[in-house]
């Protein structure tokens, strides 16, 4: 998620140096995501010069960002908290970068920097693409290693396996990878990115095309999930993580702010029950900060929401209502176990989530 949310548009500069009052909508029509990320990988064999090492790296996220949220969930499920530390940026940003305004003195306590931009510039002087979260930073050098969000979660599952907690689930089982990749591909194109194609469309035609594509895919997902508890197989996988982080933001942001308003998630029975099932699963709902989510979208996208007013709703208590998905069977963690509660310094504040009420 960049300082223009998750990728530069054709309306923005390649440096994504928009201010919080900048332009996100593409006046030419369709929203186009810049997917040029730093492809360096952290691997068990260190093939790119960055071997997996406990304590060496710091994951930087924002709780507002769905792409960063994926990594926070996977890290929790796999039990990597003591191996890969996590810094949390604030929910909004300025023209240059995400900032660590949640930390004392406005500096990340491990990296010692005020802006994530500093880690990007430490490795690539004058870096001209988006300063995005999630990002993993090499602590000894202070240099960013990667911001390739799609690869980061897969590598946490496959390359960091030696440091998974006892009972960690297999989120990317080898026998199901082909199907997981296929589902992830269409969900990214039509749903994860589809909500942005609606929200940042600059013409009626572009918006309507994106809107239909989004809801056609949501209908497809509803049909798929009507008779099975999870997207692929009978346990939680990477595919569920990727869909969940969009669904959990749907009613709070995408339905109104991005005009994805055929129905609320709460009016789509299968997907609503599926999302609540995951929300109540340890490692999912306990990473969700609805206050940060709403503040980011409504305060930052001033060309969509010029006043910057953040809505008080929706009522979040319905996230805790019974979902009944257990009747479909399935084992959330397979042969594994749930993760323990979040660490005190990573717990979502009371009032930002219905889990704390």
TrEMBL record:
Protein name from the UniProt record: Glutathione S-transferase
Organism field: Plantactinospora mayteni
Compositional bias (Low complexity): 1-23
Lineage: Bacteria, Bacillati, Actinomycetota, Actinomycetes, Micromonosporales
Annotated Gene3D superfamilies: 1.20.1050.10, Glutaredoxin (3.40.30.10)
InterPro entries given in the database record: Glutathione-S-Trfase_C-like, Glutathione-S-Trfase_C_sf, Glutathione_S-Trfase, Glutathione_S-Trfase_N, GST_Omega-like_C, GST_Omega/GSH, Thioredoxin-like_sf
Annotated GST C-terminal domain residues: 173-300
Recorded superkingdom: Bacteria
SUPFAM superfamilies hit by this protein: GST C-terminal domain-like, Thioredoxin-like
UniProt-annotated stretches for the region Disordered: 1-30, 327-357
Database matches in PROSITE patterns: GST_CTER
